[in-house]
Task: structure prediction
Amino acid sequence: MKRLTVLLAVTLLLAAAHAPLANAAEFDKFGIASVSAELSTNQAGAHPDFTTNIEMTTDPASETDPRGLKKPYANTKDVTVTLPPGLLGNLNAVDTCSTVTFATALISEDAGCPFSSQVGVAVLQLWNFQNAFTVSIYNLETSGADKVARLGFYVTAVPAFIEVGVRSDGDYGVTAEVTGISSLSLLNSARTTLWGVPADSSHDTQRLTIVESSDSKSVSPPRSSGRAPEPFMTNPTTCGAPLEIGFEADSYQEPGKFDQATASLGQITGCGKLEFEPSFALTPTNREAAAASGADALLTIPQNEAVNGLATSQLRNTVVRLPEGVAIAAGAADGLEACSEEQVGYKVSPPVVARCPEASKIASAEIDSPALARPVQAAVYQRTPEPGKLTRAWLVADELGVHVKIPGEFQLNPATGQITSLFLETPQVPVRQFELHFKGGARGVLATPRTCGTYLTEFKFSPWSATADVEGLTPMTFDQSCATGGFSPNLSAGTVNPSAGAFSPVVVALSRLSGEENLAALDVDTPPGLLAKLAGIPLCEGAAAASGACPEASRIGSTTVASGPGPSPLWIPQPGKDPTAVYLGGPYKGAPYSLVVKVPAQAGPFDLGDVITRAAIHVDPVTAQVSVLSDPLPQILEGIPVSYRTVHVDVDRPEFTLNPTSCAPMRTVGRATSETGIIASPSSRFQAGSCASLGYQPKLRMRLFGKTNRGAHPRFRAVFSTRQGDANTAKAVVALPHSTFLDQGHIRTICTRVQFAAEQCPEGSIYGHARAITPLLDQPLEGPVYLRSSNNPLPDLVAVLGGPVEVHLIGRIDSVRGGIRTSFEAVPDAPVSQFVLTMKGGKRGLLVNSRNLCRNPSSADVKLDGQNGKTADQRPRLNNSCGNAGQKAAGRARRKAQG
Result:
């Protein structure tokens, strides 16, 4: 019998080899004459026998064989059949025939694939053979990574294959490619039937061996498959739309030139009978409050796999809304990359394995489907962000010949950061179970709520059957590290080089614990005397300040921000990203200067643009102490919460910030406001050093102008000058000689404190003018000198020095030993190269001569204290307008008085 079988195969091949071919000029007439397809039932989810029929075009002028067939125009090479989505086969319902077993099927009548691997039959009409061939179709070992299944059958002792793949360029339907058709065969037609339940006894007389098929037998003795019946073919679970089967074929004479045709399968009906009862659970990998965490999701969809049952409806849409308080963790963006459409291989044909960077992976997954031989491993990758769509994802599986590339999106509530996960229009394939494990640990993708408790996740699953959605809630519990809340941030501030009077970069850093309330605003009072040299720096103003497009020349420093929960927050700027900058801005919110802080919100693949924060720089007019008051800090950017763990500012412009010349212990004091309005006042100790190395040798010159006779009211001018690099003055007390005293009768108008605070002093309260030159500013400070009401018997002398900033120099007037004394007891620790005070004379003069100034020269008693503790007491002569004659008369009078 073995010899007869081999002889039969050889005879068939020889017969085929001598079959006449069509004229070469008519090969282009090759094509598909007609196609048809049918299901034994159109009930949704049922397990039908699925039959297709294809007939090739024939030459009407050719001979007609005894069956009435005409000769095809060419030899069919390949046939591709495209199934509609949802029409699937379950490879687990049949056994697998090995490649070796299939290849050696002709060595004996008993050889070949087991009947337990048979999935259907095909009836082939070949023009160069007298009889039709009814052949068994077997489930074979797959041929490679790009095919989900491989079926095989024999035609005239030659093996042919049906390579089954899943389309990844659109609807994820099945495509069957028939390859290996003998080039010596002239195919007239092929009618193929795949069984709904291959092991069903109704097919027992269709289990033909390959030898029996070669003998043109169409019926076999009754044979069992040898295994329990299980559903193989399953109808789609969506109803209403007409289904189509696509066909295309080419020839050996013109390979690659395909003719196409379609056949209707009608409409699937009865979707209302289908079951759909998914369950869902979502649990955090970290149950701590205010921490970074991953999440484990488990979706279970019970499948009806009974032979006489209807398959469970396939899942179409998945919507999961996480609890409010669970948000994207900023730290997850550190080192994260994105996967583009090109890298993932989205909607490309033929399908390709995804080439997403490993650093773009945010989750692993496992998909268990009845349609596959085993569960497949999958991954979720960060998808390349687009404007307004930052947190998108790819669900990717590249196993068992399946190339799934499902786009998803994590929508973020712009006000709260609440996450809604959307995976819509998912493939029409059955899923028993879907496991998803989002990355956890210190760089976990989620930020847990700041308070412990049980939070509810909402879910809604929609079936392809268009029956009722399944909605529900699943709890997430956080019950560890619950001691959260409060607001006690820590402040660290100081200069890099704390030497008194030296230029040095300034560093200010505020940090808070993960579970504390978020920082909403920060104000900082610097130590008195810690000032900045603003001269020569262009200001960033107007539209440039609003957008952060400031000139580089106005840059004074940079900032570093850490955001996110847990021990590993995200630090911005990240390596390779745009740098941050702090610019010196112009007047803002009533302050003479401001800071423009630009932070490019860039991390991983995300770019949320530049975050601009303004801060007003106020200068206390009495102490010259600087206070920086920030605008509210943004709490959320495009749905991603900004959790400020550390705000670090470096003011590092060369020769910009200047240390005090006082070495007294001081503090930098902050006023931090939390998101709920809690105010904390953290502070940091500050003390300059090396004050003793600073000199202190100021000079004071005074002069009276006008009449020198007794009772005259001279004009007065004092010029105070300092050396560069000396300590600044802390206190100055000037006592005029008895020859000049205060004429209280000329004190007419005094500015009240209320008027002074409202900047509404009357013109008559102005008695002089003052001018100060400082190396810190481009222009002098100058302004009127007022008499202002005081708690003392005499009014205060107040010089209001205006300009880029305003400074009030306050002198207390009193009488000592019958003379007038003015004490400036709190001089700001600021460098002043020259200070000029001019007091009016005449009718508006406050000073009056008690005697003729030309008779005896007089000197003032001046006590000067430096900020570094050194003194420079002086007795400068009170110069006047006596001239030479006056000076000689004064000398004679002095000698006469001495005897």
Notes: The longest strand covers residues 606-619. The chain has four domains: 2-16+32-267, 274-478, 490-692, 697-895.
